[in-house]
Amino acid sequence: xxxxxxxxxxxxxxxxxxxxxxxxxxxxxxxxxxxxxxxxxxxxxxxxxxxxxxxxxxxxxxxxxxxxxxxxxxxxxxxxxxxxxxxxxxxxxxxxxxxxxxxxxxxxxxxxxxxxxxxxxxxxxxxxxxxxxxxxxxxxxxxxxxxxxxxxxxxxxxxxxxxxxxxxxxxxxxxxxxxxxxxx
Length: 184
Fold this sequence. Notes:
- The chain has 4 helices and 6 strands, in the order E-H-E-H-E-E-H-E-H-E.
- The chain is globular.
- Helix 4 links the parallel strand 5 and strand 6.
- The chain starts with a strand and ends with a strand.
- Strands 1-6-5-2-4-3 form a 6-stranded mixed beta sheet.
- The protein has a single domain, classed as 2-Layer Sandwich (Alpha-Beta Plaits), CATH 3.30.70.
- By secondary structure, the chain is α+β, with helices and mostly antiparallel strands.
């Protein structure tokens, strides 16, 4: 598995990747620990959607940066905002789940490397350049671990999640506010 660093501001999100759906979890308090989230729901959704397409796909794990000295309520507000930005950057068929108090995952069934990197870059740029509903300028960035796969490996979403988390750790170690990705 070769990890790639993607900091591609030259790629723009195409219109067909945009939509304005809302998620029933937006506005809900985030779980307190990544282990509190039923990952079975994410992996089951990925397994069903990816397998039905018999195609390539991608998984993004997105984490808020700079939360060390922030109040938990503020962290939740920022994550809600990132979820809103992410929702506006993905297709209706994509799967968005919260993984922890400052982490979300997005499964992109049928997405190739270019689509994956475009979505990741769009989310990073939009979060960095956005303001909250209150008009306050957002003072955080996101770091993304991503993995792309082909149909031969779509049957094991747990492996995809682990690879995306490894890439997230690499992106964090490189300073954050970036995307690291690999093929699996």
